Every structure is written in structure tokens, then in C-alpha cells.
Amino acid sequence: MTTRVGPWEVETIEAEPFALDGGAMFGIVPRPRWSEIHQPDDAGRISLAARCLLLRHDGGAVVLVDSGMGTRWLGRALETFQVEDRGGIAAAVAARGITRESVTDVVVTHLHFDHAGGLVETAPDRKPRPTFPAARVHVQARHFAWARSPSPRDRGSFRTADFVPIEEQGLLVVHDGPGEVVPDLPVRLSHGHTPAMQMPLVVSGDLGVVFPSDLIPTLAHVQLPWVMAYDNQPVVTVEEKDALLVEACERSWIVVSDHDPRVPAYRVVRDGARFVPVPCEL
Length: 282
What we know:
- The chain is built from eight helices and 18 strands.
- By secondary structure, the chain is an alpha+beta fold.
């Protein structure tokens, strides 16, 4: 389904399912708690979605938010992350009747491989090429600098092969701070998960759709203390999440989950001091 928000038609789009270690996804939360919600396999991995947004503007822009894991996974990495090959984000877009050449922009929330892996594909001559050859790829300057030289702690989350070909083709657009990255599409910044992660917000009147990316990766993470071990600054994550959920609750925004395998979108209500996600259609 699609939702009309001002000049945008908004819908979720699924790239390829994959899996990550459940303990890493839930940090200090004890396994007996999180495993009641996300049942791990024998290796301790939980199933996750690689969910993106597809935005179509009345003026003709076709915008993707994130690009999933991509199709360039082989050997041990393919086995580790249990990437299910469905043809990547290009196939998901094609299923909506959109050619890869007609995508005008890709807004990458951050450059971790499960969000930026689909930016590049392997051409028939085995060389890397942009998946969407005419699309400008939008990223925050501070985050791009971090991705090029990450800390030893989070180096494994970045693959330069996901974004260097984009830069070499002159398709990379670097932004410095919050605001509109494309016309009528503002982003906010979050720093707890990774520096300068950008979160698109589509709002018109009383209707709003927010894509918080890995600030709130699954519905279980709506609980404030439930943060990922992947987060560089978990205390900052809790503060940022609290602020966003207060606003989403007050304004009845639709929140899109990037990784929950069952629920693409929800609204947030209060139950005393707790936030509670209520699944809804987008």
C-alpha cells in the first residue's frame, strides 16, 4: 500500500532478508528477554528485514531511502549473514514498475553494509557499477568522513566498495547538517548509532512518516533501554530515541521500521512511562 503525504506517494519496499547475531542486536538485554520476541537460530542469529522507503514526488522525482544488503555477498560472509538473494533492491524497485534508470535520488541514512550494500552491483564484465546510474546519492559529510576512516570498533560495519564507485562516478552528494536533502524531503540527524545518521521525515499537515533507521531498528527497540551493541554511543541513542518517540506519539506519526521482519510500520502510544508500538498500514 501507499500513503499520500503532501506531494509524495510513500511506501515501504523490501530488499533482501538477512540475519544478524541476536545478542549484538539487543546489547545488554538478556537473551531470555529478546528471544521471546525474536527466536534465534542455532548460531544465535535472528531474521531481519532490509526495508527501504520508496518515495514518488508529483514533480517526477523517484527517491529511495537506503538500498539494503545488495547482491555482492559470497562465501563465508554470505553464510554468516544468511543473505537471501531476491535480486537486490533493483528487483524490488522493478516490481513496482520503476526502472533503475528512473530513480533520481537515493538518500542513504548511513553507510553500514546493510543500508548501503545495494548502491553498487556487479556488471556483466565483473566490474562494480552504480545500481541506479542516474541517481544522486545523498549522505552526510560527517558520516562520510567517518565511513572512510572508521574506528576499530565499527570498522567491520563499512565496506568502501559500497560507496567508492558512487564517488568515482560523480554521483555522491554530501550534505552538512539537517534540512532538505532533496526538495520537500528534510532529514534529521542522529549520532548514537553512528555519527551523523540521517533520518528522513515526510510531513504534511497532520500526517507524517518518519524513517528512524537504526535508531529504532525493530519494534522491540521502541523500549528505551533496548539498544544495539552496534551503537557507538548507547546513552546518546536512548536520549535521541526518547525525543523522537515523544514527538511521534504527540503528532501520531507513522514510524517505519528498517529491520523488523514482521511489522513494516507502526504508530506510538503511551502506557504510563512506556512507549508502545501499534502496528499500522502505510
